[in-house]
Design brief:
alpha/beta; 11 strands; RTL1-rel; RVP_2 domain-containing protein; Peptidase_aspartic_dom_sf; DNA/RNA_pol_sf
Length: 255
């Protein structure tokens, strides 16, 4: 980390990727919308701050702010990551209620947003990890419940872990999956741009297009033929100079 003259604050995060989610977990996940984009959101009571993945941040047309300090985030692997970029007052809608959160940019995999203890405690959240629900009691007395997606976690493991399972005698299967829905292709109604011009793409083309008031014609000079010119990687001037040098070597008997 380069010396920027800023102070350093400590933070922690327990989950960086889906493979690091423990079996007995204290987290709830689901899908929410942030800046109009669908985001995979993780509510993690083990994270000290709230984070946004750098990949998700690259999709936004919003410029992040620079914090007055550098956040030293300890990871599950024992290493540290440093960041000073934050998106302030990001709106998250739950149960039709707009909530706001400051999201610190971090290179997270598999998840777009992690809502940590700073945000959960500010909104008086109570997590039921078994039922995958979070009860909120806002300072103004408003209460609501967020239901997480129980099928949120895709059972994905790393190649190294899969190899260890196979060495221990576990069975492995190779599957080749084809999505037949893609074979049908998109209909005109599913393409948003074409929906704006239904008269250009009618269902039935009964005849040739009608005659227009102005005919589109390109007049050619009589006797004009397509230009036949072999493509070369060298410029014409360089090619001529090379040919002269080769001919000179041929005349002198070197070639």
């Amino acid at each position: 980390m380069r010396d920027t003259g800023k102070g350093i604050a400590k933070g922690r995060i327990f989950v960086l990727s889906q493979t690091e989610v423990p079996e007995s977990t204290s987290i709830v996940g689901g899908t929410l919308y942030i800046y109009g984009y669908s985001a995979r959101v993780l509510m993690d009571s083990g994270a000290s701050h709230s984070f946004m993945s750098a990949r998700f941040a690259s999709r936004l047309d919003v410029t992040p702010d620079c914090m007055s300090y550098i956040l030293d985030v300890s990871t599950p692997t024992g290493t540290s990551m440093y960041t000073d970029s934050v998106y302030r007052s990001c709106e998250i809608s739950m149960a039709g209620i707009p909530l706001y959160v400051d999201l610190i940019v971090l290179p997270i995999r598999d998840f777009d947003i992690i809502l940590g203890m700073d945000w959960l405690s500010a909104h008086r959240a109570r997590m039921d990890c078994y039922n995958k629900t979070v009860d909120f009691c806002l300072p103004d007395g408003t209460t609501f419940q967020f239901k997480g997606d129980k099928g949120f976690w895709t059972p994905i493991i790393s190649f190294i872990r899969a190899s260890r399972y196979l060495e221990k005698g576990c069975e492995g299967y190779l599957a080749y999956v084809i999505d037949r829905r893609k074979e049908k292709g998109l209909s005109l109604e599913e393409i948003l741009v074409l929906c704006d011009f239904p008269d250009v793409f009618p269902d039935d083309l009964g005849s040739l297009p009608p005659r227009r008031n102005m005919e589109f014609i390109i007049y050619l000079i009589p006797g004009t033929a397509p230009i036949s010119k072999a493509p070369y990687r060298m410029a014409p001037a360089e090619l001529r100079a090379l040919k002269l040098q080769l001919q000179d070597l041929i005349d002198k008997g070197f070639i």
